Amino acid sequence: VPTVSDLGEDHLVAAVLARIREVTGAxxxxxxxxxxxxxxxxxxxxxxxxSTDTLVEGVDFRHDWSSPADVGAKAAAAGLADVVAMGAxxxxxxxxxxxxxGTDAELLIGIAAGAAEEAARAGAVLVGGDxxxxxxxxxxxxxxxxxxxxxAAVPRxxxxxxxxxxxxxxxxxxxxxxxxxxAGGARAVVAGDPGSGSASAALDLVVGRxxxxxxxYGAGSAAAAxxxxxxxxxxxxxxxxxxxxxxxxxxxxxxxxxxxxxDETLRLVGRLLDEDPAGWVxxxxxxxxxxxxxxxxxxxxxxxxxxxRVAGRHPGGRVGIDGVPYEGRGGFTHFTD
Amino acid sequence: VPTVSDLGEDHLVAAVLARIREVTGAxxxxxxxxxxxxxxxxxxxxxxxxSTDTLVEGVDFRHDWSSPADVGAKAAAAGLADVVAMGAxxxxxxxxxxxxxGTDAELLIGIAAGAAEEAARAGAVLVGGDxxxxxxxxxxxxxxxxxxxxxAAVPRxxxxxxxxxxxxxxxxxxxxxxxxxxAGGARAVVAGDPGSGSASAALDLVVGRxxxxxxxYGAGSAAAAxxxxxxxxxxxxxxxxxxxxxxxxxxxxxxxxxxxxxDETLRLVGRLLDEDPAGWVxxxxxxxxxxxxxxxxxxxxxxxxxxxRVAGRHPGGRVGIDGVPYEGRGGFTHFTD
Lengths: 337, 337
Fold this sequence. Notes:
alpha+beta; 23% strand
């Protein structure tokens, strides 16, 4: 009997979808699960977009590294970014919290307040929620959004050979921040080099981004309006999420290493930690940047920068870097990491 | 520093709402939380209705008493009934599951399949979800629905003096089934009286209803169309949920004991367990019956039966039984039970 760890997140989801088709297939004409997109679309094409995300204490956040409001904001950002990744504008957020009875009430109140703040930042409203007693703190958010009239939701399956691959938002900052926290925090890292103000600023920036990512909330609907052929948010790492687009679209996404060089901040943090910042850019998750493909020849949508192109068709999908297939893991997966 | 147990579910939610108003009040013109209804309504009045519910292993379900599919169906029913309790038709369901890595994958697959089946029973579709590693099994569902064109969502705050109080669906069956399971199950209960076929049938029925409640999914939109002034689903017990309507509406709900007598099945189960079945009807939760108030003088909406009337105004709201205020607990609350 396989456990959920044996299967891993992706195979578990596939098994769930197969069973659901089995038990309901004959009875539901519009089963929407299993499209593999960031969010469900209702009815097919839109305008309503729905997504749910769960964060677990100790796996997705640590109370010694993040304030309650940070945890709530980060959970909300993950859900809202999924809605944006369908080309929609966020509308509403629901929040479900579990905690042991002995938990400081301020923890849950702070999480909810952080989620409400982040919803407001995305132009949405926290409209409801639920609390329940459980062994640990689990935060589940459901985000809804709406695709602008006249536009369709943008799936991850529409990338076509020749398209430009582009990204909006940060890559690798959250992963760099996590590395700083794992090394004891910004103060510990600069202890050997206390004179460096720019070092402290860089460390504080990435730690801040790990605690509260800043997804480009407006970029999704802008990309949809500009005719994006595919859209996804980078929640588990650029290569892993690019591979999802490649697989869903049946194409090769070839990334340009020159466009993926770590910026000054990441290079500085990398030097201080003696780590390669390029890895953060390629495999770091939780920044919730938007990865899009656009038809060739057009002007790039404001907020996006080109990072590669769709090199051709490939049945199973593939991601390459400068023409060389990337075989690494590429990011985080629940149950097997 | 108060813990969540110190506050209890209702005060915790109130504290959360106060904080959210504090941090976002100035920035959001349409904050919808805190209306105290079963589901959020978007925009105010409708047509979209959203609700989220969380079930926790060991608190809300036990794997030795319910199959995985039962757990999924029950979680889905709780969420879908909340949507129905706004007068809406269920449309979509999202499912978030957490479990330890060593959990049998079949458990999560079965939960998802049961949720999908129940969604289909309610005329809705399971459209998406999430899985995450955690210390225990937590099931969070988000249900969405739509109020029919030309109608408004029905809140719990609209009951008026003179209205008829009516209910659709079962009361007390889930609680009776739980009592049977706590007594060792149907086989153990009838062991002393193995000749009784009707006893076995009654025990099996209530255990089945505890495992899979059968909310009256069509009754919500029917009540809205018939002009119901308030609507709520009985998830925590008739008296407790009636008190919520009374408080939100500022009225006295007076229930008629003659209309609340346990039926043949509950009386039989009560005799077998040596328990008073009237208590199950008044305080048993999880059947997800619909409690409505209707303007006086009209014909009762099909599926509903009258169980009392709105006796007058009362600032804080009150529930009486045959004119006598009911002061008992009246149902279940997270963290303090």
